[in-house]
Write a structure and sequence with these properties.
This protein has a single domain, classed as Divalent-metal-dependent TIM barrel enzymes (TIM Barrel). It is built from twelve helices and ten strands. It is globular and about 45 Å long.
Length: about 270
């Protein structure tokens, strides 16, 4: 069976230089990266140019596939400000040839209004050949798959899908039966990690950075989730979004390889 292809999420594997991150991904056999606006700016401020970053990608066979983060797309934020934020992300995506804009968002409670805002942003992205991936986040007002599904279905755009993070699925409103009914074409990407049902620290933002370990080190039924994913969307893209103190203490290439191998193992087990 073909080895699962992987993308490192934007918060996975922090390094001082973009080149170091690319080389660590390549050492782990990972061919894709996500890049967020803030980290890109930090790399530039430390002296790396876009041309140098692109050269590092080409030299290592790694592509930037996603750009993050388009916040609050579903909420009644200032439209001009929201458009400007999306335009910045689309420009960054164009530089690196990325196809997806990642959009974690809160939700004000009105599906039709949220869908209208999302559809408008999708149309704006489509003009640049980009897709939008809406991510539900367990500790926000868009905390579950069911609500994300309602909004995405109502928006009804071909360049739109749901990003499913395992941690947010299990710590939000876990419902594997609901996942099994999701039309596979609505699933944009699956972010793989493990975690714990009992909060490890008071701040969930701190927890996802420090206690979101690689598969096999937590309590989630990853195999059950991924077996369903394989049935409904066998061609879905898998992303590694792991964050733990133990991994951060390791050299980047060692940490990258450990994360990638753990994620491939659980994907392969589900496929079999």
């Amino acid at each position: 069976m073909t080895r699962p292809d992987l993308t490192f999420c934007h918060s996975t594997l922090d390094t001082e230089r973009f080149r170091d991150r690319v080389e660590a991904a390549a050492a782990a056999g990972v061919t894709g990266l996500a890049l967020d606006f803030g980290r890109h700016r930090a790399f530039r401020e430390r002296g790396e140019t876009d041309a140098e970053m692109l050269a590092a990608c080409r030299a290592n066979g790694v592509a930037v596939r996603e750009v993050w983060s388009y916040y609050n797309v579903l909420q009644g934020a200032d439209r001009a400000r929201s458009d400007a934020a999306l335009d910045r992300l689309l420009a960054l995506a164009d530089v690196f040839g990325a196809r997806m804009i990642g959009a974690p968002s809160g939700f004000d409670g009105d599906v039709d209004e949220a869908a209208e805002r999302l559809a408008r942003s999708c149309d704006r992205a489509a003009a640049s050949g980009a897709r939008i991936g809406l991510e539900f986040v367990a500790f926000t007002t868009l905390r579950d798959l069911g609500t994300a599904w309602q909004v995405v279905a109502a928006a009804d755009r071909r360049n739109l899908g749901i990003v499913l993070d395992c941690w947010h699925f299990f710590r939000g409103a876990p419902d594997l039966d609901l996942l099994a009914r999701l039309p596979g074409e609505l699933l944009e990407a699956v972010q793989i990690n493990d975690g714990f049902f009992t909060p490890q620290v008071a701040d969930p933002m701190e927890e996802v950075g420090r206690f979101r370990p690689e598969p096999g080190q937590g309590e989630f039924d990853l195999r059950g989730l991924l077996e369903i994913v394989h049935r409904i969307a066998p061609e879905v893209r898998f992303c590694v979004e792991v964050g733990s103190d133990d991994l951060k203490a390791l050299p980047p290439k060692v940490a990258a390889t450990r994360m990638a191998e753990a994620c491939r193992a659980v994907i392969s087990a589900a496929r079999n």
